[in-house]
Structure formats: structure tokens, C-alpha cells
Amino acid sequence: KKLNSSEFRQMFLDFFAEHGHMVMQSASLIPKDDPTLLWINSGVATMKKYFDGSVVPKNRRITSSQKSIRTNDIENVGKTARHQTLFEMLGNFSVGDYFKEEAIPWAWEFLTSPKWLDLDKDKLYVTVYPKDTEAHRIWHEVVGLPEDHIVQLEDNFWDIGEGPCGPDSEIFYDRGQENNDVPEDDPENFPGGENARYLEIWNIVFSEFNHLPDGSYVEQPHKNIDTGMGLERVLSILQDAPTNFETDLFLPIIHATEDLSDGKKYGVNKDDDTSFKIIADHIRAISFAIGDGALPGNNGRGYVLRRLLRRAALNGRKLGIKDAFLYKLVPVVGDIMKSHYPEVADQADFISKVIKNEEERFGATLEAGLTLLDDLIDKAKASEDKTISGQDAFKMFDTYGFPYELTVEAAEDNGLKVDKAGFDSEMEAQKERARKARGKLESMGSQDETLMEIKDDSTFDYGVYEEQGKLIDI
Ligand code: ATP
Ligand code: MG
Ligand code: MG
Ligand code: MG
């Protein structure tokens, strides 16, 4: 079926509404009352209060399309066919209501019934946790999936340390032999392995245990279902797109970028395509994050935004775009998304202003920064240890506003390393200087980071981001 993104999203919500679910609006990307998360990174991240029993929902069956940001995938963007930083997670949830017997056959019905997605059954594979004989039985006997389409995988246990956890079952779509990125006889050549041929589209978590602080597992009195389907991934299948990016969610952004570029076209060479994808992805994440109240800054969420924005700006340079341009893409993002998420279109002017301001700040040192970066790369290539020194990486950061990760990425693209310990100690020394200077500032009262008051890079608190960043890697 050739559905567009709005039709497909609506179809998913309709399917679960027909099965008694209440349709919930997407929550903000900024977690509420949850200090453990920097960004909402899945549908279930917004449902914690229901799953831990502190709030009882009006209806124990819930469905949603949740905007999600994953910073652990930043470097995958443009390189894999399937990762974005901002994506939509379609989900159905059972808060102590139905369990495996319903969740598995419903997933199958939605994917394969001619009334719904009508995907080719032969192309679908599932993974199950080896001890979860129940899930295996349902896939095989109730759904009728042949044994050779069911893969047992030790990894299929969803557990974040303490709290509700349980086995999961993931659904993969076979994109065909031409998408193999490992040899046919490679041990990773199976659904669930590291091979782009088998695209993971849906994860169904059977949350049936409680992981106690002492490390033991007990059965939960109320068992929950939590599922997550990547909207853009399934859309790429429905629209015969080789990657998530050749779909109606991204192509208009890519085309607008072509128009802003120095005659570059998408689909001509691989490096340019990577830049187009990075820009299209990052501008969506940045626009939505700002729309939900985040602002570029020096730590936490602000730092993630700054990092995304500067990475996108750098890729604009690679396409020959000399001036601030990302802000011009905001209305395009707003238009594409407004049927379900009006927030970007509604605040397009404000979002554009924030982005333009940030682009211009970085733009002022970008050219000089890139020149230095080239020199540093040449120097490191000629060096014994093929490493950019911590001092040099810090100079890129402190003087030219290049987030550390951008220097690392450039280094890695050239087969080089960066001395992280050296960078950290430069940063520590910087922080010490800032601490000494802080007394004065504090007497002026604390200030919010607003558009006009973006702090200087030299007070950037890298440590905080590191601490928070770890919590969101899943
Ligand atoms: P992958 O192994 O491909 O990185 P995942 O196992 O990390 O995916 P889950 O945490 O299981 O993903 O999330 C549920 C679903 O959300 C995935 O099956 C996929 O369809 C989608 N998804 C996850 N991460 C991304 C991403 N970065 N971009 C787009 N879709 C994603
Ligand atoms: Mg992942
Ligand atoms: Mg996975
Ligand atoms: Mg998964």
C-alpha cells in the first residue's frame, strides 16, 4: 500500500482505537518530573507514571504516536538507512490489561491484513527471548509464523536495572539480498544481526517481571505491554524508499536544501547525500526541540541542540552553502508535520529566529575553524600516534565553537583519534577558571538562557552533559 505519512500514522492509531485503546497526544520532548531522562526517547518514557502504578489511566489501553529524540543515534544519522535523531514512535500500551495473547496477534494483523498494511508475510521475521516459550508458541501456533521465521535471541530482554522489565519480541522486515551489508555466510546475516537487509520495525515488550534492588526478579501482579514501531522505517517500506529519507517526511526538506545549495543535487554522490540527510534530520530535531521549549546552550539539552545545529551547519558548508540557511527550513518542517504536530508551524517565526541567531554565532568562526581543523588533521596524519592532541581539540572547541564530538567525527573520518583525556583536562582547567570568576556573576542573580543571553562558550560545562548523556543511552 502506498500511504503517505499522515495516512499511515492515522491508520495505526485507528487500528488500536478499534481495539479499545484511547488515543493519546504526543507528549513534549522535554520529560516532565523525570530527572533521569534528558529527552523523551520512546513512547513508554511518557507512560512511567502508569506503569509504576502512581497514576491510573482512564483507559488501560493506550495508543500514541510519540515524537522521540535519541542522542545515542546522532552519529548514525546519514550513515545507516534507518536512524534519525528525532523520530516518531507508534505504540500500543496495556497498563495491566491485555498481554501476549492479544498483543502478538494484533501486531500481526496490523502488519499483514489486506485491510491494514498488507505487508508480504514472507518478508517478516521475529525474534524472541529463548526462555519465552509462550511468545514463541503464540507466534508459531496462533499467528502461524513458520519456525524458520522465528529467531531466538538472548538479547531480547528489556531491562534497565531496576523496575519493570521482561522479554521482548522484535519484528524485522527483509529488505532483500541487495541490502546485505555483510557477506551471505556472515554470522551477522540474520534478522536481529548487524545487517541492514533485515530492518527492525517494531519492538513488543512484555513487561512481566520486577527487577528488585537486590538483583532478583519477581513476577509482577499486573503485566504490561509496551510497544514501539518506527514510523519512518515502516513508511520507507510502504513508499519503496531505500532509506527513511526518501519519504514524504524528508524529501521536501532535502529539495529545499538543494535549492539553497550551490547547485548540489540529492542522489548524485554519497558524501553529499550524507550531508543532505544530516541536515534534514537535524533541522527536524532542532525545530521540535525548540518548539517544546529547549534552547541552544552550554549543557544538558542546550548542548545537544548546539551540537546538532553546528553539525548541520557544517554539513551545509560541505554542500557549498556559505550563509546561515537552516532557519529557512523551519517552515518546510512545519508544513510537513502540522497535520499531527502543529507546534512547529505555529511557532515557526520564533524557532527560525533562535536558529538564525545560533547559526550566525557559529558562522562567524566556522571558516577559520575549518581551516584550523584541516591543519590539525594534516598534523595528526603525519604524527606517530595519529592523534589530535587534547589541547588542539580544546582550541577547536573554545575558540571556534566546534563541539568536541564534531572534532572527533572529523578525526575518525580520516582514520585518526583525539586525545580525550587531554581534552578533559583542558576543560577541567577552564572550569576552574570559570569557578573563580563565578562569584561576581552569582551576585547578579541567576539568569535564564534566553535568546538574547546565550552564554559564552568559554563557560560551557562539559561535565554535566557527560553525566546526563550517559543516562539516555539505551
Ligand atoms: P536499532 O537496533 O535499529 O537501533 P532499537 O532496538 O534501538 O533500534 P527500540 O529501542 O527497540 O529500537 O525502539 C523501538 C522502535 O523504534 C525500533 O524498532 C525502530 O523501529 C524505532 N527506532 C529506534 N531508534 C530509532 C531511530 N534512531 N530512528 C528511527 N527509528 C528508530
Ligand atoms: Mg538503537
Ligand atoms: Mg535493535
Ligand atoms: Mg529494538
TrEMBL record:
Q: Which UniProt keywords are listed?
A: Aminoacyl-tRNA synthetase, ATP-binding, Coiled coil, Cytoplasm, Ligase, Metal-binding, Nucleotide-binding, Protein biosynthesis, RNA-binding, tRNA-binding, Zinc
Tell me yes or no: is RNA-binding among this UniProt entry's keywords: yes
Which EC number(s) are documented for this chain? 6.1.1.7
Q: Which reaction does it catalyse?
A: tRNA(Ala) + L-alanine + ATP = L-alanyl-tRNA(Ala) + AMP + diphosphate
Q: Which cofactor does it need?
A: Zn(2+)
A single cellular component GO annotation: cytosol
- Where found, per UniProt? Cytoplasm
A molecular function annotated in GO for this UniProt entry is: zinc ion binding
**May I ask which residue range the UniProt record assigns to the signal sequence?**
none
List all membrane-crossing ranges: none
**Alanyl-transfer RNA synthetases family profile domain mapped to chain residues:** 3-474
Cofactor, free-text remark:
Binds 1 zinc ion per subunit.
Q: Which GO terms describe its biological process?
A: alanyl-tRNA aminoacylation
tRNA-binding listed as a keyword: yes
The function of this protein is:
Catalyzes the attachment of alanine to tRNA(Ala) in a two-step reaction: alanine is first activated by ATP to form Ala-AMP and then transferred to the acceptor end of tRNA(Ala). Also edits incorrectly charged Ser-tRNA(Ala) and Gly-tRNA(Ala) via its editing domain.
Give the domain section of the comments: Consists of three domains; the N-terminal catalytic domain, the editing domain and the C-terminal C-Ala domain. The editing domain removes incorrectly charged amino acids, while the C-Ala domain, along with tRNA(Ala), serves as a bridge to cooperatively bring together the editing and aminoacylation centers thus stimulating deacylation of misacylated tRNAs.
Q: Which family does it belong to?
A: Belongs to the class-II aminoacyl-tRNA synthetase family.
* Name of the protein in question: Alanine--tRNA ligase
Q: What is the lineage of its organism?
A: Bacteria, Bacillati, Bacillota, Bacilli, Lactobacillales
Gene responsible for this protein: alaS
